[in-house]
Amino acid sequence: MSKSIKLAILGLGTVGTGVVNLINDNLDELKRRSGRDIVITEVGTRRQRDDIDPNIIQNSDLMAAAASDNVDIVIELIGGTTLAKDVIMHAIKNGKHVVTANKALLAEHGNEIFAFAEAHNVHVAYEAAVAGGIPIIKVMREALAANRIEWLAGIINGTGNFIMTEMRDKGRPFADVLTEAQELGYAEADPTFDVEGIDAAHKLALLASIAFGIPLQFDKVYCEGITGITLQDVNYAEELGYRIKHLGFAVRRESDGSGDAGIELRVHPTLIPQNALLANVNGVKNAVLVNSHPLGQTLYCGDGAGAGATASAVMADVMDLVRVLGSIDSNNESTNGHHVPHLAFIPEQLSDTPILRAEQMITGYYLRVHAHDNPGVLADITRILSDAGINIDAILQKPAHKLGQVPVIILTLPVVESQMNIAIEKIEKLDTTTDKVVRIRLDELA
């Protein structure tokens, strides 16, 4: 009889309960795939639950549950970056493998946690930390292991995608859609992490490390939210053949004379072509587009949150760790398993490739300038852009408002951000411009 694999689930919120239900529903399938009985022996919960199997220990002492001799794998679903970190480090110290969905913790402390796990010969699995049920971590660490990843772009926050979809499809203002997102449970009472891009930045830090073999560097991710996006800009973008999405980008830049070498890590609203794959991922869905050599572009799309999607990712990690714990050979003897390095590359081979600063980034731009309806205004604006070495791709001039102001919308070809900063400063100093220049980055995803 093969040895059972024993789980401790710490945190019985939406996801934790989803994991319990998934195991109960698919018990036979899990055994057929793993060759082991997978059983929950302990759960960490602040209050006793009547709906939990009485054979499962309900433990309010999470540290004790994480170190229990009756546990092989600890599943951390409590969230946050303080207690969760203490629990995970305690579990590792006691020789337990760990599964977590905690992107904030890993983005901010993952280097330390992964090094501690390596030192104790255990593994921390985190598929559920990025894009819910989409197996993007596994794809990048394993399926694309022979590829050189050049860049990735992703819709990695469902709340932001829901808001941008509703604004475009129904012409609703940002504040109105945000209120509905909160009522539907897509956004928290304090939506800052979602709408300001912090949640997406946590996830992007993890994806970039796996893509490029670099240490986690969340503090170097450029982050811009969607709170300043107006219906006016959504509509102008549509008129020009683009859609605005809140995207995370990780881009490898080579030194080719157009800019500095390094890696761009950025989260911001972005105009992308209406026929682009990511432009047609709507609602609360997540999607990650990866461009690698020699494979080319591949898209991974699905539910980025929710009990079922996240529980699916958690249990995918558990199944991998069952194999790490060893399989059973034909003589019913345990054999050693193996695991992929935490960040896909051998720890000693992680690169010190620099992360580029915001002013070093290269993108196209959407600019909206409000100016007095005077002769020569457009000529002044285009001259400033030309003097800064910025090439214009398209211009849209709208009729004057009743106040005599003319909205001028300009799309540019890719340019180094520092050049754009200089140009915008000069445009805003013109006597004819009446407001701050609205800028939104633009990417053709090619």
From TrEMBL:
Stretches assigned to the ACT domain: 366-445
Coiled-coil segments on the chain, per record: none
Keyword Oxidoreductase in annotation: yes
EC number: 1.1.1.3
EC class name: oxidoreductase
InterPro entries xref list: ACT-like_dom_sf, ACT_dom, Asp/hSer_DH_NAD-bd, HDH, HDH_cat, HDH_CS, NAD(P)-bd_dom_sf
Residues that coordinate or bind NADPH: 103
Stored PROSITE patterns: ACT, HOMOSER_DHGENASE
Listed GO MF terms: homoserine dehydrogenase activity; NADP binding
Active site: 203 (proton donor)
Catalysed conversion reaction: L-homoserine + NAD(+) = L-aspartate 4-semialdehyde + NADH + H(+)
PANTHER family: HOMOSERINE DEHYDROGENASE
Family label: Belongs to the homoserine dehydrogenase family.
NCBIfam families, sorted: PRK06349.1 (NF004976)
Protein name: Homoserine dehydrogenase
Source organism of this protein record: Psychrobacter luti
Highest classification ranks of the organism: Bacteria, Pseudomonadati, Pseudomonadota, Gammaproteobacteria, Moraxellales
